[in-house]
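Blackboard transcription, Thursday session:
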Amino acid sequence: MKDKSRNRVLWTPPEETVRTARVKDYEKLRKRANADPPAFWEERAGELAWYRKWEKVLDDSEAPFFKWFTGARTNVVLNALDRHQKTVVRNRLAFIWEGENGDLRTLSYFALNREVCRFANVLKSMGVVKGDRVTIYMPRVLELPIAMLACAKIGAIHSVVFGGFSVEALHGRIEDSDSKVLITADGGYIRGKVVPLKEIADQALERAACIEHVIVIRRTCEDVNMEAGRDYYYDELLALPIAKGSCPTVEMDAEDPLFLLYTSGTTGTPKAILHTHGGYQVGVSTTLEFAFDLRPEDRWFCTADPGWITGHSYVVYGPLILGATSVIYEGAPTYPYPDRWWRICEEYGVTVLYTTPTAVRGLMRFGEAWPNRHDLSGLRILGTVGEPINPEAWQWYHRVIGRGECPVIDTWWQTETGSFMITPVPSFPLKPGSATRPFPGISAEVLDEKGNRVAPGEEGNLVITTPWPSMTRGIYKDPDRYVEQYWSTYKGKYLTGDSARVDEDGYFWIIGRKDDVIKVSGYRLGTAEIESALVSHPSVSEAAAITLPHEIKGNAIHVFVILRSGVQGSPELEAELIEHVGKEIGKIARPEGVEFVDGLPKTRSGKIMRRVLKARAQGLPEGDTSTLED
Ligand code: PRX
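(Written on the board underneath:)
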């Protein structure tokens, strides 16, 4: 399907933006970088601190298990904290944090380093050593980045589980990573309510024997169960002499693991995506600096939770490496009123705002009066991530929040890619809804099933054709699945799982996932996870999950359920099943609608034909059903 109307350049940035931009000629930089990507990345790596420089920039001898900066010694904390202690950055604010209840806390780079050292000393005293896994399950408070950095500092591998996930999701991730320590909180605040994190953690721990110690941060100060000999309050640990003083940063190999982050794949349970110290720090800092033109005078507000890759790369590591000041807000954007973010932007002088299309659509619904109450003139750049942005939301964001002057940086990337892959820079002409062009040093293509490039405007599979430093080093403990899922469709090319188009001007238009991964409100989930949560309910014998278009969320989950014999479908059971999925995985996975059916359309080999279900649910033609079983 061609769509030529989208082909016009709709917005060129103001002259002033181009004149002062870090990257003035994006195409020229891309041409130079793509002529020799390793040389480009080596130049970028030269901007960072290393204990010892690399022998080789790119080692492709075991492709697709690429290695970057081999032989180099470093630690992401050396760049995020240590080197700033010797410069004026030490006195700059690293974080400005606002709690949903109005609490305020700021940390300079000096203070952040002190807190990280203390937390690292506590972890060491619990016997955590290089290579150990630590699960972090926290609300959006400053102890979350502090805990991540403390792990990295001593060479432990952090695995952050989003605080919105529930018992099953947390349990699975703790067990799979074989974590020794769990860092959590008594609870967290969202929409004025308390999320009982410790209670959920206790349930998850009932079946997770690997955890030796639990560190509990007091956020709500409500009474929680504390198991003697296993659970400790963080503030009590900090008061011990062991926590005092500095803590040396452990020298790591560039290829040593930094973190695991679980994300949904095409089949089965979520998989742990592995990232390492060396290449990751080069990727996140370069992309943030170029795409958002971050400067010392900026105040950066990335609304993502550190529980997702966006939070890892662009709340924690990227901004800290650049010595930037970040604003973190704990709660919901609509609490207590839908102007919370706009008030935060005004109050803390935010200059660059980075969020999701779902959030933009959600806030747009409340009208212009809410943002118009606030002085947003400090904003100079806006950004989005996580899903395609529809032109209406783009226009509203650009016009109402960005005064028609701020570029909207639409960044396409994934948990696996570690940093931005396709994105404009502020000086580049934009087309609303397009992430524009691949980042310098990145080569992307859209291919047909046979591996040929499709014609301009035609839909196909989005692939990345050359390695890049912040690419995942694979799926933890499952190298075969990594090769199979990402590198086996087209030899030597990384399969993203997304479908896309490239127009006549070379602009990329992301259409959506082509596999059984779904994006709801920008969150990534697997149909398999939702289905297995449903089947774990005693009334359900079989289930299929699909998404249907949704005005605010982009997509909403709909499920088809076959009940066990003798069980009758009812509105009560529907509500119970929705709740059940919420309890098993998390609220973000709750289906919008449940349909009770007697059978599911399947192929002769027994695979559920979700495409047919989707067409039926929308009253559309079912397409080719020749593989449908009788
Ligand atoms: O489908 C694409 C969508 O989000 C997927 C990656 O999800 P996740 O690993 O959770 O990372 C999200 C944050 C980086 C992609 O495969 N996606 C991400 N950014 C965009 C997008 N779709 C369209 N436009 C984007 N800017």
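Lecturer's comment: The longest strand covers residues 540-550.
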